[in-house]
């Protein structure tokens, strides 16, 4: 009997993101039947698949409650990769509090809860006094609903207040983070791990250039990223491994190693790496920059069948 694999995607990408095309080929070369069902389509029999791998489900941030429910349903019907408890833990960027509590360095962050009913003055007092800063919702992806502001410019701070109020009024939790300026020259470093082992690293060019503008990202799954191969520094490798090693303590019930993990790092003002994102749901793996990584991921999947 043929082993069937689902690479879950979203309606906007019924044939998956082009970066995943080599993965489909690699899995089929291993004798597997591969399909790409839409995660929230109502007519998919998930129990018909031997495993479901979460790939380009990039609209899940618009339906986080449905996505959490979907992970539980699929986990009962098939083998879900990564496990459901990992996916649900990673939906909301409030997970970064757990990283910080575990002694892992993150970007300095102020958290704002819509239940607090912040007025404009209270919002203003939570912005940094100098430098640039970033506002984003805690559930988001692809730099959607995110803006960059200048702390020492009154018009910019006014736009930032409007941005925060817009998010809070919609019932969304908000993060206010310092913009660490070395990212403008160094960029981000994305470390990709399969089965807990480092596969490759890439450089992501900076994306944020200005304030949030309503409607700019309507219908946009993600902003285009400029990627190049990168050789990670010793400090980046050490921090990335610390994050991977900490996952069993951070996520109850997780079994190490995970099939895949991506750790995104940026330098702080002293040049030391800090965690910007921990991607455990549907990260891009940038196979174009590291073609040899396709087989490593395909092997990690087949080992779980």
From TrEMBL:
Protein name: ATP-grasp domain-containing protein
The keyword ATP-binding belongs to this UniProt entry's keyword annotation: yes
UniProtKB keywords: ATP-binding, Nucleotide-binding
Organism: Cellulomonas pakistanensis
PROSITE patterns associated with the record: ATP_GRASP
Top-rank lineage group of the source organism: Bacteria
ATP-grasp domain boundaries: 96-305
MF annotations from Gene Ontology: ATP binding; metal ion binding
